[in-house]
Amino acid sequence: MNVIITLPELKKGFTNVGYICEESTALTVFLAMDLKKPLLIEGAPGVGKTEMGKVLAEILDTDLIRLQCYEGLDETKALYEWNYQRQLLRIQMNRNLEEEQVSEEDLFSSKYLMERPLLKAIQAENQPVLLIDEVDKCDPEFEAFLFEVLSDFQVSIPELGTIGAKNIPVVVLTSNNERELSDGLKRRCLYLYLDFPDVEQEVQIIKAKVPQIAERLAWETARVVAQLRQNNDLRKKPSIAETLDWARALVSLKRNRLDGKMVSDTLNLILKTHADQNLFQQEIGSEGVDRMLKQSGFGGEVSQCR
Prior knowledge:
The structure is a single chain. The longest helix is centred in the C-terminal third of the chain and has 15 residues, at about 215-230. Helices cover about 50% and strands about 10% of the residues. It starts with 6 loop residues before the first helix and ends in a 10-residue tail after the last helix. The protein has a 5-stranded parallel sheet, sandwiched between helices. The chain has a two-stranded antiparallel ribbon with strand order 3-4. The protein folds into 3 domains: about 5-80 and about 115-195, P-loop containing nucleotide triphosphate hydrolases (Rossmann fold, 3-Layer(aba) Sandwich); about 80-110, no CATH class; about 200-295. By secondary structure, it is of the alpha/beta class.
């Protein structure tokens, strides 16, 4: 059964699960669902692309089926495999019982079929959310196979014939832009680009996910993270998930506000390489954080401290 949802209901759903996004983002997601088109989301790691698939499954109260892409991924890992061990066992059991030789049709029936994410999504009784994560990591050959499946939402299994989708799944594809995706895939999808949130948006995210945090601490945490992300020399910019981990840690430490020393002491929660931590100490440091927080003021804009 397909889930029918209106744009206001989708926006309300995002609010209820604490997923803060722009109006244009909610509109694009709604159109992808209403038009039954896959949604391709591109953006830097950590901006909430994968989370989109998860929250849609929560909003729609349905199953999330995830296909994690990687180099070398092929059809057998994404679509289906035959359970060869069970087939061999069936043949051996027939021999031992001296029964009539098992036929090929018996061996290649649906009960010996092992569903992988794509086939599982197509055969689901209720409309699922199919999350195809980091599609830019798979090989171009697999990508070509993938957009053919997503065009017709059906697959051909030589031994069983063509299997069409019982309910067209809500499909979310994510890409970190590690390589350019094919025009064929993009043509079949609605496109959405997600960037890191600004300070005000990140404050809303922090307060939604860490409700016990002090108002001032939420603002200061968002400001410091925004300042770090402005540095293009960082190997890995802090993700939204790392911001939330940091906020929860600061609450656990019973902090109501930030200062330079606390940022330095907990820097490993938001900067995950030694080189990035050294870069912070060299270019900003504890004193730079103190100046930035003092100059910006509670509820003010993030100032430059480089």
